[in-house]
Every structure is written in C-alpha cells, then in structure tokens.
Amino acid sequence: MTRAFVALGSNLDDPPAQLRRALAALDRLPETRCTAHSRYWRTPPWGIQAQPPFLNAVASLETALDPHALLDGLLAIETAQGRVRGEQRWGPRTLDLDLLHMEGVRLADDRLVLPHPRIAERAFVLLPLAELAPGLVLPGQGTVADLLATVDRTGCEPV
C-alpha cells in the first residue's frame, strides 16, 4: 500500500455535499481506503475571479493502485458528480480532484506529473495538506510547512 494525497474542490451544486460524496467515493475505490481528511476550507477562486468561492480539502489515502489507475478513479468520481472536462480552465465546477503526491513516486508523462507541479503556489492545497502532513517532503519543492509559509493566504478560512 502506498500513501497518496488528493486535493478536493467544489464551488457549484452544494459544495459541502459534493466534498462529502467525493470522500465517500474515494473510500470505495478498489484497493484503496481514505485514512484521513482535512477540514474544509473556503478559498477565493483561482484564475477566473468572477465565480463563487471554493470549498477545498485534502484526503489521505492508502492505495495499492498505480498512479494512473488512481487518476482514472479520480476522473470517474468527478464525472459521476457532474464534472464536465474541457470547459473553461479554472472556471466553476461541481468537483475537482487532483492527485497531489504518492509516496515514493516521481512521475512526469502526458497524463500526470507527481508530485503535482503547482502545489507550492496554492494556499487552497497547502492549508488542508498541512493539517494532514506538515512535514511531508515534496521532492524538488520542500516541506509542506515551508511551502505554506511562502504563499498568500488572503481570503482562506476554515469552515
């Protein structure tokens, strides 16, 4: 089993319910269990500003799935919850699941980069991730706590 971290976000169609359903769905993935999740964080939109605030969280998983199989599972959960990909980048969405990190895995291909290359830029990821694993070292980026100390947290608040 490998420890993995997944970011969750929603700003449409009852975001708290979207995140609850997504956490339950993560725990139902084959050979995977959700071992913990952060509290929810209300955060300002990223990219396109003219949209509702997001609700974000991070889940910690134990999984026997390889990175691409886990990614496929995340995409299937998004689709089941009404996410339509190919719409406006950084626009509003029912659910966004991002595979952030899998322990012992470094990967860069046309489908997936691990660890996620933009973790260090995003308070909406680092705040909930720091609740679960502040000392986690993200290869090539630093510890979660150190990265969190450098990002703008304006408008981010726990729910």
From TrEMBL:
<protein>
    <recommendedName>
        <fullName>2-amino-4-hydroxy-6-hydroxymethyldihydropteridine pyrophosphokinase</fullName>
        <ecNumber>2.7.6.3</ecNumber>
    </recommendedName>
</protein>
<dbReference type="GO" id="GO:0003848">
    <property type="term" value="F:2-amino-4-hydroxy-6-hydroxymethyldihydropteridine diphosphokinase activity"/>
</dbReference>
<feature type="domain" description="7,8-dihydro-6-hydroxymethylpterin-pyrophosphokinase">
    <location>
        <begin position="89"/>
        <end position="100"/>
    </location>
</feature>
<keyword id="KW-0808">Transferase</keyword>
<dbReference type="InterPro" id="IPR000550">
    <property type="entry name" value="Hppk"/>
</dbReference>
<comment type="function">
    <text>Catalyzes the transfer of pyrophosphate from adenosine triphosphate (ATP) to 6-hydroxymethyl-7,8-dihydropterin, an enzymatic step in folate biosynthesis pathway.</text>
</comment>
<keyword id="KW-0289">Folate biosynthesis</keyword>
<keyword id="KW-0547">Nucleotide-binding</keyword>
<dbReference type="Pfam" id="PF01288">
    <property type="entry name" value="HPPK"/>
</dbReference>
<keyword id="KW-0067">ATP-binding</keyword>
<dbReference type="InterPro" id="IPR035907">
    <property type="entry name" value="Hppk_sf"/>
</dbReference>
<comment type="pathway">
    <text>Cofactor biosynthesis; tetrahydrofolate biosynthesis; 2-amino-4-hydroxy-6-hydroxymethyl-7,8-dihydropteridine diphosphate from 7,8-dihydroneopterin triphosphate: step 4/4.</text>
</comment>
<comment type="similarity">
    <text>Belongs to the HPPK family.</text>
</comment>
<keyword id="KW-0418">Kinase</keyword>
